[in-house]
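RECORD TYPE: inverse folding
INPUT: structure tokens
STRUCTURE:
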């Protein structure tokens, strides 16, 4: 199964009911249980700057919206840390936050798992992988 690649996140290969390209994703969170959403390849880059202008943190966040305007929110507070996967079982990201319910949609943010896995491997766990070992 593995992870959803950066390329697939930017170029989804599934159409929703409105005929728009997207990735259908699912998560099971502490607050909302199992919910279905749509990821459409939109990313946000988040930078946190400290008092020292030479030091900053950068995080890439993957945007996910609820499935349609009739759906409840994709996530709520206490869902952070939930893993988001596509309908084929590939891990897409780890939920980090949301913007809350609006008139017809909400926005959830997840750190892409391919991005996290690269950093996990580069920072002391070079053999980390998602392959099941029996």
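DESIGNED SEQUENCE:
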């Amino acid at each position: 199964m593995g992870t959803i690649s950066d390329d697939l996140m930017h170029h989804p290969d599934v159409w929703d009911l409105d005929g728009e390209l997207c990735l259908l994703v699912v998560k099971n969170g502490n607050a909302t249980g199992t919910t279905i959403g749509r990821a459409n390849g939109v990313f946000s880059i988040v930078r946190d700057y400290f008092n020292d202008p030479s030091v900053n943190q950068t995080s890439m966040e993957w945007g996910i919206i609820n499935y349609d305007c009739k759906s409840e929110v994709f996530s709520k507070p206490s869902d952070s840390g939930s893993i988001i996967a596509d309908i084929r079982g590939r891990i897409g990201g780890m939920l980090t936050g949301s913007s809350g319910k609006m008139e017809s949609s909400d926005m959830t943010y997840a750190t892409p798992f391919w991005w996290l896995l690269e950093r996990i491997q580069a920072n002391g766990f070079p053999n980390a992988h998602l392959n099941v070992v029996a």
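NOTES: The longest helix spans residues 113-122.
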